[in-house]
Queue: 4 jobs
Job 1
Amino acid sequence: MSHTNSTANYNLPQFIGTDTPAWLTDVNGAMTAIDSQMKTNADSASTANASATTANGNIGTLGNLNTTAKTDLVSAVNEVNTGLGTVSGVASSASGTANSAKTAIDALTEYLSLSTYTDVTWTCTNGSVSNQVSSVGTHSARNNSGTLGKFYGDISFTVTSSTGVTFKSSDTGFRPTSSFNIVGFATKQDVTPSATSGHDATPLSIKFNTDGTLEFTLSAYWYNKNVLINFFNSLLFIQDFGDVEND
């Protein structure tokens, strides 16, 4: 047997007392392995030396470093890294602030965008009227959530019920979380040609329902009168502020 054992790293022969060395395989093989590894080591050392020379040329001289510890390369590198960390932190904070601001601006832009328009019709749900304007005369403009908008236009009719009347609109698209009234959201006016008084417009309270409909009621005072309802073209926050009035 040529050799019983081998070295751990390069598999070189290791003999015991009863082994008979085989020169062509054991010794030649070992020498070839040693030679190859020495050449690999020499090439690696040469490459490392060239890299070190290049790095040294890139670094330049310690005197040119703009640091407080010019004679200590480790301190210099640490100081630069500290500065970079500070810059990175400031940049990250600024980016976070900018992203938060953009998110807030986008949300505000969407909230203020009155991009949806609806023609709104009205129906007398209690009492009776005649000469009601048949064409669509009122309109809503609102944001996507129905929480901000405008309502504008007018309707006219003659009250023929002596007990008063109640009107209800089609869906305006407004979506309050609870029903509420807005005082003075519209005006009511007696426009009967023969009327000697009552031509001045007076405030009308409008109820906003959660299903998007609007409602208003006129008392018996308006019996046999021609009535004009005007809705103000103003911005509406679809929220209950407690301004309730009974007409």
Note: Residues 116-237 form one domain.
Job 2
Amino acid sequence: MDNGGAFTDRLFAEAKIPQGSTALDIGCGGGDITFRLSSAVGAQGRVTGLDLNGTAIEHARKRASALDVTNTQFLERDFLEFAQSGAKFDLTTCRRVLMYLADQSKAAKAFFNLLKPNGILLLQEHDKTIRLPAPDRPLADRAQRWIWDTVKFEGANLGTGFQLQSLLSDAGFREIAISAEAVVETPSQAVKTAEMVRHMLPRIEAAKVATAEEIDLATLEERLAIEQANSKSTSITEIVFGAIARVV
């Protein structure tokens, strides 16, 4: 769905994260980005992961223990409240969280307040306002709509990517660099649509977007693969946006 791993790596490389930095990962989930940060800041750095989901936080702590990562901590906290604590960091990351927040301007100001002078924000968001489906892959298009109609039902702003510049500028950030790339699917290059539908199935049903019977998860991956093999088209499934912004 998101092409996020490779894009995130490129965002990290462009930011040139200094060793020994203090870093905050907002909406850390199971710690995927937190552990990237842990490696980037080195043994002398410190990384804090925040998330509202206690189950995800516990999972992240167990992963840190299993990986013997000692420069991280994971807290079950609301980052908007945490931003009022006076804590300051050299670097803050936030991936695929802003789109779900009702008051994005307030969130952007919280990002700013969590950073020290010369601090860096790394932000990754996804945008579904541009979508070019393949005319000969109707099942893939339908599956993508199951995913994104659910996300929209849950209150997400699907146009967040195109709004990053103004949100960050209004919050006080300067030296804002925005990048974007399309996630494409071709006859030989697949997006992990079936995997994402499997992961989201309870949410899809809760949103009444589709039923399990309609989706037929047991055969979905095979049907998508057959459709792709017979396709001659390239489609754009979403746009991934990145922002690197600094407190000056």
Note: Residues 108 and 161 are 13 Å apart (CA to CA).
Job 3
Amino acid sequence: MELSTQKELVQYFSKYISDNKKSRIEEVLDYRTRHLTVVLEDIYQPQNASAIVRTCDIFGVQDLHIIENNNYYELNPEVVKGSSKWISMQQYNAHKNNTVECLEKLKKNNYRILATSPSAESLSINDVSLDQKTALVFGTEYTGVSDIVKVYADEMVTIPMFGFTESFNVSVSAALCLNAMITKMHQNKVNWQLSEPEKVALRLEWYRSIVVNAALYEKRFFEEFNNN
């Protein structure tokens, strides 16, 4: 759909959305980013998966890539609390090893791959540079990222820890990493915000999710649009 048509459809939908909701959407759009994205490899506990979705939404990370090799990705409605409708989730589950497909796609789109690790020898998450687009990969709850992720990774990163316990819960790790990286990203002069066409497309997507019977209204819009 052309950008001009998207804008007209947004305007059409706006009649059915409150001013407060539209204002809130604009505030959130200003802080949405694709400069940083999250990849989940074989996460299988619904409460962890759902908590990470909420964390991405809270910190403004728009894209979540979900690799399903051995484990089916499932959300817990009690935990996710509707946040999944604000996030763009792409699932990779069509092949024997979906990790390669996901990481190759991210590399092709100029993302640097950072794989999380509990190893103290890895780069501290606090020292990560955000001068280029970055994909942060989290592995399964008990074994971490796969060997394939380690091969593709440009860097292994860790959260500094000072106790006896060797690692954080994966959803806690995601929250801590994103907090550190988003805070640094906002402080830097890097161009991390969405482009105007990206905002228009996402605004339209969110309007569709809010308006009751959106598909019916959209059909009516195009009937009027084609008759003019």
Note: Residues 126 and 180 are 6 Å apart (CA to CA).
Job 4
Amino acid sequence: MKRLLLLALLLPLGAFASPPVVVFGEKEFYALDSPTAAGPRDAAQQAFFAGYRADWGRQAPYEASLALVSPPAWGKTVGPATKGEIDYRKSFPGGFVFRLALESLLPNHEYILTLNGNPARAGNALLRSAVPGNPQERYYDFLIVRTDAKGGYEADLGVALKPGDYDVRCYVKDTADFKIVLYRDFFKFAVR
């Protein structure tokens, strides 16, 4: 059953109606309408799962929006029309809640979504992994997604995070070479 859920999440939204996803780790996530939608067993994770489910059910508009753009020379450009957008809650109990839309990436291709910190900014120490070669800077690769036949992907996501203030970057990285294809420089949100 878990394998079926994984395949469902990796398929593009156009393949069938895809539910919002609650992420607790790169390999631990739940679709809200799946048979395993009871969610995790940990009490703090259950609280975030239930809170996100209730918030998504209200369909209230997101409070902030920002564009994802092709990176400068240090990244990789997929094409001139490649772009993305994140609409998000500025503050949420237990995690980061947002809607992600990606356009004109490689079709039927996997990308990894990442939050990346900076030692001089809020939230860096709250992210899970140290950047290789720069252990003070931290990041969190939280989910692999697959684009549709037109290179698009769209989903509502809730990512469980440690409580605190965050001032981080968002990256969309190609799983073939881990180069950044879309990014947003620092933006702020809070996890209560």
Note: The CA atoms of residues 84 and 102 lie 4 Å apart.
